[in-house]
Amino acid sequence: MRQMNWIVAGLFLGLVTVSAYAADKPSRSGVTNIPPQAGDEELVVDTLRGKLLKADAGKYTVEMGPGSHLSLVIEPDTKFEENYKAMEGDWIEAFITPQMHVKSIKRSTPAYTMEGDILKVEGNFFVVRSSAGKEVRLQLGKDTKHEGPLKVGDRIKTEYAPNGAALSIKPAKFPIDPGSDSSEMPAAKKYYS
After folding, report:
1. Cβ pair 123, 117 in contact under 8 A
2. Which one of 39, 85, 112, 115 is at 20 to 30 Å from 72 when CA atoms are compared?
3. Could you tell me the pTM of the whole model?
4. How would you label 31-44 residue by residue, b for 16+ Cβ within 10 Å and e otherwise?
5. β-pairing, 68-80 with 125-130?
6. pLDDT of 80-109, one tens digit each?
7. What is the CA angle 168-169-175, rounded to 5?
8. C-alpha Rg value of the chain to the nearest Å
9. Pairing relation of β-strands 91-96 and 46-56?
10. Is-contact 94 105, C-beta < 8 A?
11. How do residues 140-181 score in pLDDT, each as one tens digit?
12. Residue 100 backbone class (left: φ over 0; alpha: ψ -120 to 50; beta: rest)
């Protein structure tokens, strides 16, 4: 187990180093990232869900929660699953890289993605504060996917419906919250608005 922790820590530090280097390098799309090298593939790091607010060529703006927006890079090789045609107002699910490049995207049920710290737990309700300081009160239900009890101070990633019902809760991997001032993923910070 201890060896696994060192491996995960090493991978994370490598990602941070690569992300810091990537922050100053222009790409084909004009967005800062690491230029692709022959044979290189970008690692899909996370899944996010939200509402598509704006679909421009090469860039989508997604509402991650009320008042929180995130810009994603759409590349020529982005896979549109199930012949999805992006339309503003759609709820989407996207598989993204650390540089906020979309590897694949599809239509989704209405849900937001948020990462933050649990501030309060009261029965089936809990309050999460994002890195940007936004607080959201959510409710656990019988269909909420999560492991173990929620504790104040836990850093989580949650997907929730617009009505505040938590759909899934899991330990956070990386900060992806809009407005995050964390230095853990410097390349990603450039895409938040």
Report:
1. no
2. 39
3. 0.65
4. bbbbeeeeeeebee
5. unpaired
6. 998 898 899 999 999 999 889 999 999 999
7. 120
8. 17
9. antiparallel
10. yes
11. 999 999 988 899 999 999 999 999 999 999 998 755 444 443
12. left
Interatomic CA distance for residues 162 and 138, integer angstroms:
10
Rounded CA separation 20/175 (Å): 15
Q: Which two tokens stand for residue 43?
A: 């690692």
Q: For residues 48 and 65, is the Cβ–Cβ distance under 8 A? A: no
Stated length of the chain: 193
Residue type, 95: F
Domains identified in the chain and CATH numbers: 112-171 (2.40.50.320)
Q: What counts of helices (H) and strands (E) characterise the chain?
A: 2, 10
Residue carrying structure tokens 């020529």: 76
User: Are 192 and 131 a contacting pair, CB within 8 Å?
Assistant: no
How far apart CA 66 and CA 24 sit, in angstroms, is: 30
User: Residue written as tokens 């690692």?
Assistant: 43
* Tokens read off for 177: 């919250």
